[in-house]
Amino acid sequence: SSIFAAVEMAPRDPILGLTEAFNADTRATKVNLGVGVYYDENGKLPLLGAVKAAEKVRLEAAPARGYQPIEGLAAYNQAVQNLVFGANSAVVRENRVITFEALGGTGALKVGADYLKRLLPYAKLIISDPSWENHRALFEGAGFTVDTYTYFDPATRGVNFAGMKASLNALPAGSIVLLHACCHNPTGADLTAAQWKEVVEIVKARDLVPFVDMAYQGFAEGIEPDGIAPRLFADAGLDMFVSSSFSKSFSLYGERVGALSIVAASKDEAARVLSQVKRVIRTNYSNPPTHGGAIVAAVLSSPELRQQWEGELAGMRDRIRAMRTGLVDKLKARKVAQDFSFIARQRGMFSYTGLTVDQVERLMSEFGIYAVSTGRVCMAALNSRNIDYVADAIAAVLK
Ligand code: PMP
């Protein structure tokens, strides 16, 4: 019989399944709040002007498509380090940070996970409760036992910081802690700067290994403030891993542009780690693709394009904020009993709204509004044309 005869059907990806159901819905008023991408005011995925300009130059230059180095484009990796840590940071100046161009934030996490499994084979890895749904599967796939630390507080819809600290303080030395730099996915609940300082102290005191996932740098407050976590860990002299994604901030999802940065204690250590991570990459996909990284590097290293990009990034950030405060105001105007002001305090693309499974189901069946069953909604899928309809629908299902 076939070697596949006993293969079972894997469960469907819950979010992609939602999009399929949305596409099949024929109601003209339908809204997909289940997505994980930024849509503009017209409900479209933007192609940024800075990206378009850099692509035009590259197309005209018509470069040959040779292999890239295993670690990717040097100009890109340097630009990423400057963005994550600051060009004048000690780790960059002292050559203690190494960066690898990777296939999106996911690819960066995977390369980091595979290398960590070789480096610390017995370490346990912990993620926030809840976390991006791919974190657990990705690290388990790399061979780790994955546990969670307390994070979200359903009462305040913010961070349960006392619970988080208690979880971190109970970890064995050498445990790897996955932290969301900002715009926590799926909750939208972030740590304050003062809380990050406390987390850094605990991580240092307990000899934990920080792995900072930064998929939304620039989406909360701006490049520098959103980089507070990696900067504080670097200032504290800790070894660490950082995964970056430019899927959202450059709207380059399908180009798969991300990076893994690793900070070591010395330049010599960093060089040895570099050689080992190159082996991980070489035996996986050999070297990264050229286009996306070349475009991001071109934008970040041209003062004009960089300024244009920062303006466009601020535009996305401000539009999401306007949708947040708009939804809070509109729900208040509809006299719902609950206090939804937390939506304006949460940051990034997502909000854990507290809507129940039943309420989410009613939004879909009665209104054609699709959201994740956990109550996660994408604030960037709202716009001035659908926000009143969504507010009406939420008010209706709360009754
Ligand atoms: N980490 C988090 C927290 C994310 O939300 C995402 C993407 N939504 C990723 C990593 C993966 O990013 P990419 O799409 O660039 O692989």
Automatic annotation (TrEMBL):
Belongs to the class-I pyridoxal-phosphate-dependent aminotransferase family. Its EC number is 2.6.1.-. GO terms for molecular function: identical protein binding; L-tyrosine-2-oxoglutarate transaminase activity; pyridoxal phosphate binding. SUPFAM superfamilies: PLP-dependent transferases. InterPro entries: Aminotransferase_I/II_large, Asp_trans, NHTrfase_class1_PyrdxlP-BS, PyrdxlP-dep_Trfase, PyrdxlP-dep_Trfase_major, PyrdxlP-dep_Trfase_small. PANTHER family: AROMATIC-AMINO-ACID AMINOTRANSFERASE, ASPARTATE AMINOTRANSFERASE. It comes from Georgfuchsia toluolica. Residues 29-394 form the Aminotransferase class I/classII large domain. It comes from the Bacteria. Its cofactor is pyridoxal 5'-phosphate. GO terms for biological process: L-phenylalanine biosynthetic process from chorismate via phenylpyruvate. GO terms for cellular component: cytosol. This is Aminotransferase. Homodimer. NCBIfam families: PRK09257.1. Keywords: Aminotransferase, Pyridoxal phosphate, Transferase. The gene is tyrB.
